[in-house]
Amino acid sequence: MDVSGKMAFGVMGMLPPTSACSGGFQRNDKRQNQTMKSDTKSEARQKSIIHLDMDAFYPAVEVRDHPELKGKPVIVGGGRERGVVSSASYEARKFGVHSAQPMATAMRLCPHGIFLPVRMSRYQEVSRQVFEIFHSFTPLVEPLSIDEAFLDVTGVERLSGPPREIALKIKEKVLDETGLTVSAGVAPSKFVAKIASDMDKPDGLTVVPPDRVREFLDPLPVDKMWGVGKVTQQVLARLGVRTFQDLTQIPVGLLERTLGKHGAAMHRLAMGIDDRVVEPGHETKSIGHEETFARDILDLEEARKEILSLAGRVARRMRREDVRGLTVSLKIKYADFTLITRAVTLTEPVDDSGEIYATACRLLEKTEVGRRPVRLIGVSLSQLSSPDKETQLRLFDDDRASLKRKGLTLALDSICDKFGEKSIQPATLVSKT
Predict the structure, then answer these.
(1) Which of 148, 177, 348, 355 is catalytic?
(2) Are the C-beta atoms of residues 316 and 424 closer than 8 Å to each other?
(3) What residue ranges define each of the domains in the chain, with the CATH number in brackets?
(4) Most exposed: 51, 135, 244, 377, by fewest CB within 10 Å?
(5) Could you confirm whether 148 is annotated as catalytic?
């Protein structure tokens, strides 16, 4: 069906086909055959970008694996006393629970919630399934995280149909093959597509035609823009800016004097101008794990044990993703919430837990751990690269000990993948279980 010319964007949601939205916009059921009209010649010159964002991914995977949890408030995160919420189901969000919230607060807001630990290896497994589906529609896939990505579908219409139909096909295939829902935003730029995907969650589809971008953006509050937090909102409010349209009417020079170099960029985005391309080569910048403790750590030896555990988890994840890291970082948060980071760049990239642990322990000596109580410890590797197989084999031929250690490591990884991370570990960590 054709949609009224009054409509600035199309949202495929759960409301009845004739439901009206504020501002004269119309929302159609996702099963209806909706067509957005725009200038054909102009559209041919425009990119077609889809932003895909899995709905409450961690809890959704838990519900899929445990159907008895369906319809219940599921909260995934760290320990109940000192941990934070990683993700919450939509049932839990109704009670005010959200990501990055202290777990203690979430329990107070939703005492009857189902609180579960993070199962990162499981989420990564499902994520790989989802991204395989994305790649089946276009090679131009830029992952933003484990559960969201940009897709450039410009020029693939002959094979898969218009961008809106491609988004629908992706949503249907993800649901059929994984049992999970994904929300999509279709637009001529990454910036607008990302905002659009968040307009009708969960299981939504919002389409913004090229000639309706300004009409779509103008009424939105400025906090919908990336990087606009409470402080920036306060600065903009003093300038009388509350919406995207307000922002476009402020002189660029004034924005630059007030907000620095980001002022001009924000002005461009508010006008819907975003020339960034989808980067399929976009790679993970770092891999790490951190632990927030139920009680503060005072003992240096106990801190080393925690680092050993974290180093093992980081190393296994790196080998699973077939990367090695050149820079090792140690993150420490003291009991008073003071946060410090110590890092060192090695001469050769590593993926071995022993090397990561030894390096992190050297960094530990540059902190006040053992003299100040510690709330959190994190270990990560950055400057990631894929190992050169030929170089590795040549090195192993010259070093039988390295070859033997590599074989042992792979065997241990296999056991952990099959029976869980705690199925086999250094003897010094046995007491942690």
Answers:
(1) 148
(2) no
(3) 1-37+46-210 (3.30.70.270), 218-270 (1.10.150.20), 286-432 (3.30.1490.100)
(4) 135
(5) yes
Q: Which H or E run includes 360?
A: helix 353-364
Helices (H), 66-119: 90-93, 103-109
Per the CB < 8 A criterion, the answer to whether 272 and 262 are in contact is no
**Cα–Cα distance for residue pair 167/165, rounded to 1 Å:** 5
Buried b (16+ CB within 10 A) or exposed e, 45-78: ebbbbbbbbbbbbbbbbbbeeeeebeeebbbbbb
Q: What is the per-residue pLDDT across 262-320, written as a single tens digit (0 to 9) for each? A: 899 999 999 999 999 998 865 667 899 999 888 899 999 999 999 999 999 999 988 88
- The order of strands in the sheet holding 141-145 is 27-29, 10-13, 205-207, 182-187, 49-54, 148-152, 141-145
Mean pLDDT of 151-167: 91
DSSP designation for 278: P
Distance (Å, rounded) from C-alpha 53 to C-alpha 46? 22
Q: Which two tokens stand for residue 299?
A: 């003992």
Q: Are 14 and 202 in contact (CB under 8 A)?
A: no
